[in-house]
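Following up on my earlier thread - several people asked me to post the actual chain instead of describing it. Fair enough. Here it is, all 556 residues.
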Amino acid sequence: MKAINSQISVAPQVKPEDMADFAQQGFRSVICNRPDGEGADQPSFEEIEAAAGKLGMEARYLPIVAGKVGDTDAEEFGRLMESLPKPILAYCRTGTRSATLWSLSQAEKLPLSDILSRTKAAGYDMAGVVRRIANGGRTPTETAEDARFDVVIVGGGAAGISVASSLLSRKSDLEIAIIDPADVHYYQPGWTMVGGGIFEASDTAKTMGSLIPKGVHWIKSAVAAFEPKDNAVVLDGCRVVKYGRLVVCPGLKLDWHKVEGLVDTLGKNGVTSNYRYDMAPYTWHLVQTMKAGRALFTQPPMPIKCAGAPQKAMYLSADHWLKSGTLDKIDIQFMNAGGVLFGVKDYVPALMDYVKRYDAGLNFFHNLVAVDGPGKKAVFEVKEPEKDPRQVEVEFDMMHVTPPQTAPDFIRVSPLADATGWVDVDQSTLRHKTFDNIWSLGDVMNAPNAKTAAAARKQAPVVAENIVSDIAGHSATAQYDGYGSCPLTVERGKIVLAEFGYGGTLLPSFPRWLVDGTKPTRTAWLLKERILPPIYWRAMLRGKEWLAKPEKVSAA
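Reply from S.P.:
Thanks for posting it. Predicted structure:
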């Protein structure tokens, strides 16, 4: 027996003698979805009904022939779900028909991702009926496909637009579509600078339509599900887009709701975040107006988008307070769910110099779990090695929050995801490990690299090169070395330019005499402030691969 939610569980064939145990567990109704006589060893529904009745349980018979769940069957199951006392136990030979009926009956009541995640957790794969769920629980009457392209790209962020441009620069006759519902494209690396008073928020946003490469089709819709065995992407509303090759790069989900009380207080009560376009200006407002008190800067468990961003906000804020003469009145505390300041040890000494300069407290293994905005209190779960977990309450006057982050729901429940919910790729070629006409890049895939725009800049040419090679009938010709870059803004005017690959290997883009990445430099600041934004808008998104040419696969 597997619980789908608090109202219903599904099970393989049950017996009359099981009813007493089910009643003791609190079940008040039973639905039989297996026709009598399907198997020689199964009890009849009448036997189940009689045993249930003696215990005060309701029983209903909705028999379904294996593999033939009809639309009216799902509707009737939905009516039973509404009318019967709960919780309900539904059963068939294996539980699959019952799980399918529940999924279809809830299609217009729950998000598709919720239905798929609940049934997946119970051990039932609903991939075979995903289009019907997306179509409100009914069998689609439209044609098998609404559109077909050589390459379909899911996601119109930095990774998606870059890979489209890189593909066209290599093979201009490709029919390419980008699927993304957003109207606006953001230069997210600039939000740290907005929160530090260096950039204007408006400088980090452009319309999506102005950035989609010429000749690339823009499908302005959200993805509901993937059908990789049929080379299909199912959109909201059950439209179906077929592909020859698929690139998956929708970014990741900022899970604000995972911190109790955060959504209600974000943007007021001194609670802010540079991870939102509309909040980054509020960060700068708080920094300018704060003259005394305690400032908290949080970092959730990995993985997160740009692991250095939480402390970048701290350094720029502290630098302002230092230069305005108020730092000695402000208690800065960095609350990090992890156990180290930065994951690549070569950069830690320079960062620690600034931690000491700003007299910031480092609190490791502290994960933000709740916020009381009006009360100006934050609750952290502390999980230190070899110690019992505990919770601590910390008062604050200002708090910069980095939200917990996960793969988007439609990715986590898809056949493309690994056990932890990220797209499962070969870390070198970025090709999917199971489906050989699918690639992934950017924040959503599971290669062990830093999730940064700089990483996507290096990944896009690799994916483009390998797709074009695959179209030509050849094996992968380009490989990704795990490159990621994190320009750590340690003060206004200086940056520690962290550049590294898999395993923490240093991968500097410039000679050491020009930029020593392990030390704060003015040159790195000029790169971040003046050079990288135009490179992003005018080169990376247009397929111009400056310092990003893919590394060739070495011969075995």
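The first strand starts at residue 2 and ends at 3. That should answer part of your original question.
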